[in-house]
Automatic annotation (TrEMBL):
InterPro entries membership: ATPase_NBD, Carb_kinase_FGGY, FGGY_C, FGGY_Carb_Kinase, FGGY_N
SUPFAM superfamilies: Actin-like ATPase domain (SSF53067)
Keywords, comma-separated and alphabetical: Kinase, Transferase
Domain Carbohydrate kinase FGGY N-terminal residues, every copy: 5-257
Family statement drawn from the similarity comment of this UniProt entry: Belongs to the FGGY kinase family.
Protein name: FGGY family carbohydrate kinase
PANTHER family given in the database record: SUGAR KINASE (PTHR43095)
Carbohydrate kinase FGGY C-terminal domain segment(s): 269-457
Gene3D superfamilies: 3.30.420.40
GO MF entry, a single one: kinase activity
Length: 505
């Protein structure tokens, strides 16, 4: 057993996860905790960023106890590295305390502002960021909303920060002026930066009306931004002084952990929001166009870039169905739902689900979550298959865009929680007409964070090679030709349905 350990965490939408790995990628301890989402108004979704900090410390304390019980020395943890949501921010004061809600990609409160900014038809967005137009999920839009609508920000706002850097800076005991962001998560802002130069764009920020003084400094993910402070060491059970890395974006880490290190490869980050990513060498003009609904980001590694399309309620729709419709709390019930769904043929005899539970996208703003085509034979299993396939149709839309731009997508790696669902993996293979694989190390971002932590500590010399060594296929799913044809026909019918529900537009 190695005596070099690394602590990683993932600050996700529905939960946080903390784990400790050794340098041979053995998981020594792990704990998770659920987060809470508030819905103060229709279309609004917000959280408490301090909850992330509390839950991360809670899970760290659990991990330290597990290690001590097993006889593993917590003093051997050589670095801490985390990741978080790339499209979500809060505003902080000079003490580093949150003075606004934490708002992320699920929120729609900036819709009117987005449309007004779109109407300016500025080409600088696509030219410098790869994102041709504003989007409701962009932190740049949340920042504008905070500045206009939160009195506390007007009085004492200092910096805007993402949830992962917020946790890391507090673990290190840093103040507001010390706020930072890594160069990958920076691109999660959507607007306001130069993606190639990896710096804030004064011209864009002036257009947005956001002072560069409010923006965190840009660092590399493996930069050491501080060390575990005495107070949090006492609370978590880990020794003070452990180096703390700058952190990374969740999507970026999942991409790396799935072997998506070179252009042409694709990964499905099957978490709360289903993020379908394709790696490129840089901005592709045919994809960075108004109306594409694709987001362009830079990766964690230098010189890496990718596009992604998102189903805003992907994983959240699954949780909603299990909790609110099936009314089952335990995650084991997902397996039961799959068994019930297998009793029904692919396509559910024409029944369908539209997963727009938090509102429509820019193409269909008036659409809401909808079941259609149900009959007296439709039971819980049929509805569950409809939910899985309903999310899959949004994947098909993104797949068509990628292929039209010349990205072949002959191979798709699925990671995060959704990768454990064999039925859904096969549905995706059929719907996307591509070979799907899952990995033996399916934890995605957290074990990847620990590899980056080892690199930051100097225990790994070549980060890319270390990542490649971790890849081992667990299962392969091959598309069924007849199912693929059926799904394509249903996809065309779905398009007409969306237009009708949107008011004929």
């Amino acid at each position: 057993m190695s005596d070099k350990y690394y602590l990683g965490f993932d600050a996700g939408t529905q939960s946080v996860k903390v784990a400790v790995y050794d340098d041979e990628q053995h998981c020594l301890a792990m704990d998770t905790a659920k987060t809470h989402l508030a819905y103060p108004q229709p279309g609004w979704v917000q959280m408490d960023v301090d909850e992330y900090y509390r839950l991360i410390k809670q899970c760290m304390a659990s991990c330290s106890r597990q290690m001590e019980e097993k006889g593993w020395d917590v003093g051997n943890v050589r670095a801490i590295m985390g990741d978080g949501i790339i499209c979500g921010i809060a505003g902080i004061d000079e003490d580093g305390k949150a003075i606004t809600p934490y708002v992320n990609y699920l929120d729609s409160r900036t819709r009117d502002d987005v449309e007004a900014l779109k109407a300016k038809n500025l080409d600088i967005w696509g030219r410098e960021t790869g994102n041709a137009e504003p989007n409701m999920m962009f932190p740049a839009m949340f920042a504008r909303w905070f500045m206009k609508n939160v009195p506390a920000w007007k009085e004492k706002g200092v910096k805007f920060v993402h949830n992962c850097p917020y946790v890391l800076m507090h673990l290190a005991g840093l103040k507001g002026k010390d706020a930072f962001i890594d160069w990958g998560t920076m691109s999660g802002w959507g607007l306001g930066y130069d993606v190639v130069k990896k710096e804030w764009s004064k011209e864009q920020l002036d257009i947005l009306g956001i002072s560069e003084d409010f923006m965190p400094r840009i660092v590399k993910p493996w930069d050491i931004i501080g060390h575990l402070c005495e107070e949090d060491a006492m609370e978590t059970g880990f020794p003070a002084g452990i180096p703390i890395c700058a952190g990374a974006g969740d999507t970026m880490e999942s991409m790396m952990g799935s072997g998506i290190l070179e252009a042409g490869n694709a990964v499905d980050v099957a978490g709360t929001c289903a993020m379908f990513c394709a790696a490129t060498d840089g901005i592709m003009p045919e994809l960075s166009v108004p109306g594409s609904n694709l987001i362009f980001n830079s990766g964690t590694l230098p010189g890496t870039y990718f596009y992604w399309g998102m189903v805003r309620t992907g994983g959240l729709a699954l949780r909603w169905f299990k909790d609110s419709i099936a009314r089952q709390e335990g995650d084991d019930y997902y397996g039961t739902l799959d068994e019930l769904a297998k009793r029904h043929k692919p396509g559910c005899e024409g029944a369908m689900f539209l997963p727009y539970l938090t509102g429509g996208d820019s193409a269909y703003p008036n659409v809401r979550g909808t079941f259609t085509g149900l009959t007296l034979d439709s039971d819980q299993g049929a509805m569950w298959r409809c939910v899985l396939e309903g999310i899959g149709y949004d994947y098909m839309e993104v797949t068509d865009q990628y292929r039209a731009a010349g990205i072949g997508l002959k191979h798709l790696t699925i990671t995060e929680g959704g990768s454990r669902d064999e039925l859904w993996n096969q549905i995706k293979a059929d719907m996307l007409d591509t070979t799907v694989v899952t990995l033996k190390v399916a934890g995605g971002a957290v074990p990847t964070n620990c590899i980056v932590a080892a690199y930051a500590a100097g225990d790994i010399k070549d980060l890319k090679k270390a990542l490649e060594r971790q890849l081992e296929v667990k299962a392969t799913y091959v598309p069924d030709e007849e199912n693929t044809k059926m799904y394509r026909a249903s996809y065309e019918k779905r398009g007409a349905l969306l237009k009708a529900l949107n008011g004929g537009k």
